[in-house]
Design a protein that fits this description.
37% of the residues lie in helices and 20% in strands. The protein has 371 residues and is α/β, with parallel strands linked by helices.
């Protein structure tokens, strides 16, 4: 019932019964119970019809609270969300590469300050969105040899759970960004879609029948690993042709600071002479990756999001759609290309959706790791 209301917005009791397949009497009992638990609240009566006015029931914003932690190659974010997905507080950390001790020193005081502002009994847990096998990217992230091996031998989920006294969940960061679209996405959302999130490395996620599909190992739809043909006949992975690390590298070679890339995206300061070539290669690679993906998974929509300014995201979507439109792709039906609706905070909001999904929603088929 909570999943139905989250997906469709406030609903009258009779409509809740119809959509869930429950009897009106059973639905009324459950609604009353959820209202008493503080998870649902009454809206304004809708008048103008014969009989008693209907009273829509919606999610109560202070029904529960969730923390989300995104750990990336260049930055980390913590968000505190309420039950309807509003960001109540946040913290941001930029670094040259992620060190586990520094991460703990950032997370623990930040969460301590945020949790003091909400009822403790309403805290549902912390979700972590992190690149799986993050230590494999040490060289590309510029970390000294062996300095990221601690991520291989220590369990940040278990350490945070012991320190915070809250349930802690963990998921691949790109899957988490896709999960944020599923849990908090705005507007009419398709039942099936591919999701690309452009960060330091590009990653992907897959939703089938309104469920996040993460596969056997939790790393399904690893779209960043797709091979992309180059002009010389060689192949490179999508992560090597459509990621922000390439723009960072171009800025460094031009003698320009790339720190703006890892702060708030609206503060980007990137010269057109550097941004344009990156956009061209990113969009060309995305079009190739989309066609290859749709040969395997027949989805009608592809959403593109990322740690990007809104105008850059819109340009990527427009250029990719144009390339796809003029590309010959016999045997498949080309999908619609659209912007994601979450934006730069997709991974941290997706992390926060993990305890939300586990505690209060119908199973979204996500691979959750909890103590």
């Amino acid at each position: 019932m909570l999943s139905t209301i989250r997906r469709n917005g406030p609903l009258a009791k009779a409509e809740i019964a119809r959509r869930t397949g429950l009897s009106i009497q059973t639905s009324a009992v459950i609604v009353r119970s959820l209202e008493q638990e503080g998870l649902l609240k009454r809206g304004e009566p809708v008048r103008g019809r014969i009989g008693q006015p209907s009273v829509p029931m919606g999610l109560a914003p202070d029904g529960a609270f969730f923390f989300g932690l995104k750990i990336g190659r260049r930055s980390a974010d913590i968000v505190l969300l309420n039950f309807i997905g509003d960001v109540l507080d946040s913290a941001h950390l930029v670094y040259d590469y992620p060190r586990l001790d520094d991460m703990m020193a950032f997370v623990l005081p930040a969460i301590a300050g945020m949790r003091a502002t909400v009822p403790q009994e309403r805290l549902a847990g912390l979700g972590i969105a992190i690149p799986f096998r993050i230590w494999d990217w040490a060289r590309i992230a510029g970390a000294p040899a062996g300095r990221m091996d601690e991520w291989r031998t220590r369990d940040i989920r278990a350490e945070l759970e012991a320190s915070l006294g809250l349930p802690v969940y963990l998921q691949n960061d790109a899957s988490a960004a896709c999960g944020a679209e599923l849990a908090f996405g705005k507007g009419q959302r398709p039942q099936d879609f591919l999701h690309f999130f452009i960060g330091y490395f590009i990653g992907g996620g897959l939703v089938l029948d309104n469920r996040l599909y993460t596969g056997r190992s939790g790393n399904a739809a690893a779209l960043g690993s797709l091979p992309i043909a180059q002009a010389d006949g060689s192949y490179r992975q999508l992560a090597d042709t459509a990621s922000l690390c390439l723009l960072e590298r171009a800025m460094a070679l031009a003698g320009q600071s790339s720190e703006c890339l890892w702060g708030p995206p609206d503060d980007w300061v990137v010269e057109a002479s550097l941004l344009e070539p990156w956009l061209d290669e990113t969009c060309r690679s995305l079009a190739v990756a989309i066609i290859a993906s749709c040969c395997v998974v027949d989805v009608g929509t592809v959403l593109i999001d990322g740690w990007l300014p809104g105008n850059v995201r819109a340009e990527i979507v427009a250029r990719t759609a144009a390339i796809l439109d003029r590309t010959d792709a016999p045997g498949i039906e080309k999908p619609e290309i659209a912007e994601g609706t979450i934006g730069p905070n997709g991974r941290s909001l997706g992390a926060a959706s993990l305890p939300l999904s586990d505690r209060y929603l119908v199973d979204l088929n996500a691979v959750l790791v909890a103590g």
